[in-house]
Amino acid sequence: MKQNVRNSTFFAPRFTAMDADPITVARRLLGQRLVRVIDGVRLAGTIVEVEAYLGAEDRAAHTFGGRRTVRNEAMYLPGGHAYVYFTYGMHHCLNVVCGRRDEGVAVLVRAIEPTEGLDEMFSRRVKAGRLEELCSGPGRLTQAMAIGRSLNGVDLRTSDELFIERQASRQLPQSAFVQTRRVGLNRSMDESVLGLSGEFTNWWRAPLRFAMKGNAFVS
DNA sequence: CCCGTGATTTAT
DNA sequence: TAAATCACGGGG
What we know:
The protein is mainly beta. It has helices spanning 22-29, 118-124, 138-144; strands at 33-38, 41-53, 82-87, 91-97, 106-116, 162-165, 177-180, 193-194, 200-201, 209-212. The protein is 10% helix and 27% strand.
């Protein structure tokens, strides 16, 4: 039975405050609701884990050094757009572009706590495991929600296929989330480099991963 | 720990 | 043209 999209939750207010810097947006995104609509069916979950990528000065960012390629072009769109890329020959990753046009900054969505369309999401996952593994990981959540390159560059503030609904009425207090180094980065980024700001920064150690404290759906 | 997988980037 | 890389996931 397909869920009728014309219900109250479908018209929940959109989360649109994505034109700030990626660290601010990362914290704001925790607790918001990521929504994917396919054939009128809602797939949704609460964002519980994200990572900030700081652009030209960030060794781990696809836009490091101001690099502009066909792949990362969407990351230079204005804040509020989606940057979806394909990696390791089999996984897609979803990023929320932040800041202003041409800044090249974004937030990677690493995990959500699934709340709607669980059956549909399980059926899309090759390995249907426990609920805690359904959308916990950047590649897992894109597979469960059928987020692929066709959604690269869409405006999350206006799209009816992929968007974010305002869930938490205010920003989470610092005590509600943990901050750690980012996952999956090459250790060569451990060397400190002189960033654009003129200060030495260690991008491997930089605490740019944000996760809701004690949440079982964090990857 | 290791490997599948293939687009993208970088080196030659 | 070839090699290396990769914001990962699944299996041992």
